[in-house]
Amino acid sequence: MSQNIVTYSPAYTIVPTYECFNRCSYCNFRTDPGKSPWLTLLEAESILQRLQNQGICEILILSGEVHPLSPRREAWFQLIYDLCVLALAMGFLPHTNAGPLSFPEMQRLKNVNVSMGLMLEQLTPKLLNTVHFHAPSKLPDVRLQQLEWAGKLQIPFTTGLLLGIGETEDDCWQALAAIADLHKQYKHIQEVILQPHSPGNLQTLNAEAFDPRLLPKLIEKARNILPAEITIQIPPNLVTDDNWLLACLDAGARDLGGIGPKDEVNPDYPHLQKHKLMEILKTAGWELVPRLPVYPHFYSWLNEEMVTAVKNYGVA
Ligand code: SF4
């Protein structure tokens, strides 16, 4: 790929439910269990119908979590699975991020997702006493195990770090090194997102935003830690100063992630219109190019149905 290309995925996010049994104090997404009606398949179908022929390829299925031991877990999982099947049947490419899954759940979702994701966030256990005090899903070992299982199952995987939630720089290097180690074993990580904490209206955490001026240095170092085939992604709506966005690209970031009408995780930070983003990048010689939610070197890991879906985008 030429040096001056930055990619993004034309995406739309479908949320099966906002309810989540964790309470991360920086969260701007969740509602209490039982307080968010689940999306129905009929509602999803009508959303997806509206999206057809709009240039969108990725359907990001992003869900709050139902506790693994809850009697509602099976129905929650089935809804996510059915949404993937529906999106595929309607010609889209599903990518699910629904928190930690059991091995059999992950195994089933592999059959209906071109890729999957889960933020590692940070590995330092000290966050269990602060921002993750009420978030059992954020146990570092649980997150690492998810990455390992994805590798064992040959699922093209996106992960990343959340920055500015109480970690030190060394914590970041350790988390990146852990991702690099797992990738060296399984070769399954396609992107690492470096996501600056950006305060929103719903969160209880009273903390400053991660200073975007620190991002370029962090990206540079991450580029040295991560194997070259892993792309570094930054969310452009969270780096609101054009010059710092360009500095992030100069430092080695090459992907802007899924761009759609709403960033469900950071609803207070809308994405720029695509043409506006293109203009900003063009002034510095960068070309913004769409990509699929699965990178070409992973096509051989996809089943026949998904290869067909990918081929419909004229690229397999
Ligand atoms: S950040 Fe994710 S896991 Fe934490 S409370 Fe929000 S939805 Fe749940």
Outline:
Its EC number is 4.3.1.32. The chain is of the alpha/beta class.
Describe this structure in words.
It is a single chain. It is built from nine helices and nine strands. Helix 3 (103-110) links the parallel strand 3 (93-97) and strand 4. It has 316 residues and is of the alpha/beta class. The model has no long low-confidence stretch (mean pLDDT 96). The relative contact order is 0.16. It has a single domain (5-311), classed as Alpha-Beta Barrel (TIM Barrel), CATH 3.20.20. Bound molecules: iron/sulfur cluster. The site of iron/sulfur cluster has 12 residues, from loops. Iron/sulfur cluster (SF4) binds at residues 20, 22-24, 27, 29-30, 64-65, 99, 135, 137.
Low-confidence stretches: none
Counting DSSP H or I runs of 4 or more residues, the number of helices is: 9
Main sheet makeup: 9 strands, parallel
The topology string of helices and strands comes to EHEHEHEHEHEHEHEHEH
| CATH structural class | Alpha Beta
SSE layout:
Blueprint: E1 5-14, H1 41-51, E2 58-62, H2 73-89, E3 93-97, H3 103-110, E4 115-117, H4 140-152, E5 157-163, H5 169-186, E6 189-196, H6 215-225, E7 231-233, H7 242-251, E8 255-259, H8 274-283, E9 287-290, H9 304-311
Parallel strand pairs: 1-2, 1-8, 1-9, 2-3, 3-4, 4-5, 5-6, 6-7
Helix pairs in contact: 1-2, 4-5, 5-6, 6-7
Iron/sulfur cluster binds near residues 24 and 99.
Keywords:
316 residues, alpha/beta, TIM Barrel, binds iron/sulfur cluster
